[in-house]
Amino acid sequence: MATTTHQHSDTARTAASGLTVFAAVLLMIAGVLDLLRGIMAIAEDDVYVTTPNYIFQFDLTGWGWIQLVLGVIAVLVSLGLFARATWARIVGVGIAGLLIIANFLSIPYYPFWSLTLIALYAFVIWALCVVPREP
């Protein structure tokens, strides 16, 4: 019976570390994409389509700075996830949630891109939440 329990815990640990790496890779990719999106909005406001009747209207340069900062934080948190830092899992869920909100608010400006990043961040939250705590 001890062998079965030991094998089960090794399998669970392997799966947990795989999901953490999955979340770290997705957070890194999506964070870099948001960072680049922020740079685009700061450098060239006319890259984005403007929607005149959208409730949540923002100055695109200001919005670019928000995307840039959130993208940098996401990349830094993903580095913490690669190092298996506990703080990174907690902050990762929070930053992914903030980035889902940010991308939701920018749907009229870049719809396909925003929806793609929302899906990536949802997978990050899922992967970080299903992993059990390390002992």
TrEMBL record:
<keyword id="KW-0472">Membrane</keyword>
<keyword id="KW-1133">Transmembrane helix</keyword>
<feature type="transmembrane region" description="Helical">
    <location>
        <begin position="21"/>
        <end position="43"/>
    </location>
</feature>
<protein>
    <recommendedName>
        <fullName>DUF7144 domain-containing protein</fullName>
    </recommendedName>
</protein>
<feature type="domain" description="DUF7144">
    <location>
        <begin position="20"/>
        <end position="132"/>
    </location>
</feature>
<dbReference type="Pfam" id="PF23636">
    <property type="entry name" value="DUF7144"/>
</dbReference>
<keyword id="KW-0812">Transmembrane</keyword>
<dbReference type="InterPro" id="IPR055568">
    <property type="entry name" value="DUF7144"/>
</dbReference>
<feature type="transmembrane region" description="Helical">
    <location>
        <begin position="63"/>
        <end position="83"/>
    </location>
</feature>
<feature type="transmembrane region" description="Helical">
    <location>
        <begin position="113"/>
        <end position="131"/>
    </location>
</feature>
<feature type="transmembrane region" description="Helical">
    <location>
        <begin position="90"/>
        <end position="107"/>
    </location>
</feature>
